[in-house]
Automatic annotation (TrEMBL):
PROSITE patterns: NODB. Residues 395-415 have a biased composition (Low complexity). It comes from Entomortierella parvispora. Keywords: Signal. Residues 148-353 form the NodB homology domain. This is NodB homology domain-containing protein. Residues 1-20 form the signal peptide. It holds the Pfam family Polysacc_deac_1. GO terms for molecular function: chitin deacetylase activity. One of its GO terms (biological process) is carbohydrate metabolic process. PANTHER family: CHITIN DEACETYLASE, GLYCOSYL TRANSFERASE-RELATED.
Length: 443
């Protein structure tokens, strides 16, 4: 990847004034979503970062349980079929400049065979395109510009089970959040979608309170390019509204489910205040058989070997061009097992941080009171100039140095009673230059 593209991916998407349009050169201006201004702020969550005084972590808060998360929302886990006549969506659609939204029909399952090889709409699902063909929206964020950095991201949260049983409760949040807290107070991007927050608002509040950076993962987790314009707006609107009602923040980052995005969807997202965060390394952990993924087809051993291969490549000195944004999930016992097992080794070999931090995004929300640590010395504005936001530097997550010799790194066995055969066939991968990581799980 060229230095020019790496620099483009590092461009930031926040403004110095909350309600003012983002100063841009060539990009369509953004404004803080006025259609969320009247949503009352919740209690039980932090109102700024860095947090003044003690950070409320540990057990899940309980204040979110009293919130009414059904009135004014569509059915959970379902695409909004009547979006074109939904008064809330109609009002938002009036704020969008539709001349800046490419006039392309929604895709279908057969579109792949008829779509032009020239990829006129930068359809990621077609060939992994991350640089829009229109010049008024920025490239997707898809890696960490500085080599040796690992952008930690978890999709599909907050993780919960219904009904809760003693067997599955140990994997629900705050399991992963506790693990991150115990391992260098590690921060990550948490990609929440609205329908999941409805079932676990307290877990969502814990994620914010722990200092993780929250991004939008839509309302119902659909293939976004298959939706009508009104349905695309609805997915963003209700996802943002749920996050604002439960967490009191307005994210400026989002991730498309399945990575399915094109310039039509990007243009709508951008005008609704959102910048797209993709990835360049995919664990494919969502395909591992698990308690919430009974039909998964990816053996755990294969996913384990994939991560081990990345670390071995880095340890051998072959991974020196750019850093990475890595796709993981808080989705099942299997994904949590994989994430927790490899994190200590990843922290030894990479400077590990949220994808927003490695791209010098200090303010990922429209609320100015949240200013997170970044990798560089100053944050970068949308037009590439430095800003007056002097965010604290990332510290405490720098790799501990190169060790000598070889270390055997193997995945935990028997990680799940319902995880399928994938957990029985675990591999032992030799990783050059890494300290052996032994993690025991009591099930």
């Amino acid at each position: 990847m060229t230095l020019k593209l790496s620099a483009a991916l590092a461009v930031l998407f926040f403004a110095a004034t909350t309600n003012a349009a983002t100063p841009t050169t060539g990009y369509l201006p953004q404004t803080s979503p006025a259609w969320l201004a009247d949503i009352p702020l919740p209690s039980g969550v932090i109102k700024s970062w860095p947090q003044t005084g003690a950070v409320p972590s540990g057990p899940l808060p309980t204040t979110a349980a009293a919130l009414d998360l059904t009135t004014g929302y569509p059915a959970t886990f379902q695409i909004v079929t009547d979006a074109a006549t939904d008064p809330q969506i109609v009002a938002v659609m009036k704020t969008i400049d539709w001349t800046k939204v490419p006039n392309v029909a929604p895709t279908t399952e057969t579109t792949m065979t008829t779509y032009s090889p020239s990829d006129p709409y930068c359809w990621w699902t077609y060939n992994g395109c991350v640089t829009p063909k229109v010049d008024y929206i920025p490239p997707d964020i898809s890696n960490c510009p500085k080599e040796g950095t690992w952008g930690l991201t978890y999709d599909d949260g907050p993780m919960y089970y219904f009904p809760v049983t003693p067997e599955n409760e140990k994997w629900a949040e705050p399991n992963l959040y506790n693990y991150l807290l115990a391992h260098n107070d590690q921060k990550a991007n948490l990609m929440y979608y609205g329908s999941r927050i409805v079932g676990a608002p307290d877990a969502a509040q814990r994620g914010l309170n722990d200092g993780h950076t929250i991004c939008v993962h839509t309302w119902s987790h659909p293939y976004m390019t298959r939706l009508t314009n009104a349905q695309v707006v609805a997915e963003f609107y209700y996802g943002l509204k749920m996050i604002k009602q439960v967490l009191g923040i307005t994210p400026r980052c989002w991730r498309p489910p399945y990575g399915d995005v094109d310039d039509r969807v990007r243009s709508i997202a951008w005008q609704m205040g959102l910048r797209n965060i993709m990835w360049d390394l995919d664990t494919n952990d969502w395909q591992i058989p698990g308690d919430l993924v009974p039909g998964g087809t990816l053996p755990y051993s294969q996913a384990n070997a994939t991560v081990a291969g990345w670390l071995e490549n880095r340890a051998k000195g072959n991974d020196t061009k750019v850093g990475h944004v890595v796709l993981e999930h808080e989705l099942s016992n299997s994904t949590i097992t994989l994430a927790e097992f490899w994190l200590p080794t990843i922290q030894k070999e990479f400077q590990t941080m949220p994808a927003t931090a490695c791209n010098d995004i200090a303010q990922p929300y429209w609320e100015e009171s949240f200013v997170y640590p970044i990798q560089g010395t100053v944050a970068i504005s949308m037009n590439g100039s430095t800003t007056n936001v002097q965010a604290p530097q990332i510290s405490g997550s720098t790799p501990s140095g190169t060790s000598s010799g070889s270390g055997a790194v193997s995945a935990p066995t028997g990680a799940s009673k319902t995880g399928g055969a994938g957990h029985a066939a675990v591999s032992k991968i030799t990783v050059f230059g890494l300290v052996a990581a032994a993690v025991a799980y009591i099930l």
